[in-house]
Amino acid sequence: MDNLRIATPEIFLLTATCVVLVVGLFLKPEQRQLNYWMAQAALVVTLIMSTSQIGDAPASAFSGAYSIDAMSASLKSWILAIVFGGFLYSRDYLSERQIARGEYYTLGLFGTAGMMIMVSATNMLTIYLGLELLALSLYAMVALYRNNAAASEAAMKYFVLGALASGMLLYGISMIYGATGSLNLAVVNDVLVGGSERSVGARFGLVFVVVGLAFKFGAVPFHMWVPDVYDGAPTSVTLFISTAPKIAAFAMLIRLLVDGLPVLHADWQQMLSILAALSMIVGNLVAIAQTNIKRMLAYSTISHVGFLLMGIVGASAEGYSAAMFYAIVYAFTTLAAFGVLLALSRDGYEAVNLNDLAGLGKRNVLLAAVMMLAMISLAGVPPLVGFYAKLSVLKAAIGGGYMWLAIVGVFMSVIGAFYYLRIIKLMFFDEPIVKAEINAASDVSAGLAVNGLALVVFGVVPGLIMGACVAAFG
Amino acid sequence: MTDSSSIILSLTIWIPILGGLAIIAMGNAKSRPFALVVSLLTLLVSLPLYFGFDKTTAAMQFTEKASWLSSFDIYYALGVDGISMPLVILTTLINVIVVISAWEVIKDRPAMYLGSFQIMTGLMVGVFSALDAVLFYIFFEATLIPMFLIIGIWGGPNRVYATIKFFLYTFLGSVFMLIALIYLYKEGQTFSILGMHTLELGERQQFWIFLAFFAAFAVKIPMWPVHTWLPDAHVEAPTAGSAVLAAIMLKMGGYGFLRFSLPITPDASAKLDIFMITISLIAVVYIGFVALAQRDMKKLIAYSSISHMGFVTLGIFIAFILIGKGDTAGVELGIEGAIMQMISHGFISAAMFLCVGVMYDRVHSREIADYGGVINTMPYFGAFMIFFSMANAGLPGTSGFVGEFMVILASFKTNFWIAFLAALTLILGAAYTLWMVKRVILGEIANDKVAALTDINRREFWMLAILAVFVLLLGVFPNIIASVMHASVENLVQHISISKY
Question: I want to staple B280 with a disulfide (CB 3.0 to 4.6 A). Which of A151, A423, B147, B314 is the partner?
Answer without folding.
Answer: B314
